[in-house]
């Protein structure tokens, strides 16, 4: 997977080669060195795993923003705008040419995953987290296939500053 941060303000683009990358202005320590006084010495960390990018601010003075919202941690998607203080980049993921990234692409929020249809033969006792739903119709016809859903859980979400100071707990 190619992961790249494409500068939106004419600076050099950055290729993320490592699985864990430290961003900041401290030479010799940071994997990505950005020589701007608004960037903290140890500004943030970017983790590349399973085709995704995750970011965590390291207590920087001027903050890390995703799509204009200051975050302490979160996931990055293709087309997202990532800003370290006033240095802005567009996220590119995948083997495609970075020039082909849609300008309007970005993070989309999905309220719920649509149900996934599964053949009856594939459902067995070993799939503990797959639960068949009720038949789609009340008829006893054998041509109606059961619908199964896998639970959808995500432990990653962007936090606002107030949520981050409250430990991410909602009241």
Helical content class: under 10%
Enumerate the strands of the largest sheet in spatial order, edge to edge or round the barrel: 2-1-11-10-7-8
Assembly state of the chains shown:
single chain
Parts with pLDDT < 50 across at least 5 consecutive residues: 100-111, 121-141
Which structural category do the helix and sheet elements fall into? mainly beta
Total helical elements: 1
Structural summary, described in words:
- There is one protein chain.
- The radius of gyration is 21 Å and the shape is globular.
- A six-stranded antiparallel beta sheet has the order 2-1-11-10-7-8, with no helix packed on it. A five-stranded mixed beta sheet has the order 4-3-5-6-9, with no helix packed on it.
- The protein starts with a strand and ends in a 6-residue tail after the last helix.
- It has one helix and 14 strands, in the order ββββββββββββββα.
- It is mainly β and 171 residues long.
- A hairpin with a 2-residue loop joins β10 (81-84) and β11 (87-93).
- The longest helix has 5 residues, at 161-165.
Tag the structure with descriptive keywords.
1 helix; mainly beta; five-stranded mixed beta sheet; single chain; globular; 171 residues; 32% strand; 14 strands; six-stranded antiparallel beta sheet
């Amino acid at each position: 997977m190619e992961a790249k941060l494409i500068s939106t303000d004419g600076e050099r683009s950055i290729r993320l080669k490592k699985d864990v990358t430290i961003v900041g202005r401290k030479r010799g320590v940071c994997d990505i060195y950005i020589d701007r006084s608004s960037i903290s010495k140890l500004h943030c960390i970017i983790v590349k795993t399973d085709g995704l990018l995750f970011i965590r601010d390291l207590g920087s003075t001027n903050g890390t923003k995703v799509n204009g919202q200051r975050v302490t941690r979160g996931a990055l998607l293709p087309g997202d705008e990532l800003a370290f203080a006033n240095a802005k980049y567009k996220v590119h993921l995948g083997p495609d040419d970075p020039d082909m990234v849609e300008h309007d692409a970005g993070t989309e929020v999905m309220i719920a995953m649509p149900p996934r249809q599964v053949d009856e033969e594939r459902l067995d006792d070993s799939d503990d987290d797959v639960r068949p739903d009720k038949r789609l119709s009340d008829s006893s016809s054998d041509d109606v296939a059961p619908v199964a859903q896998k639970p959808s859980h995500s432990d990653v979400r962007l936090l606002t500053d107030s949520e981050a100071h409250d430990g991410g707990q909602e009241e």
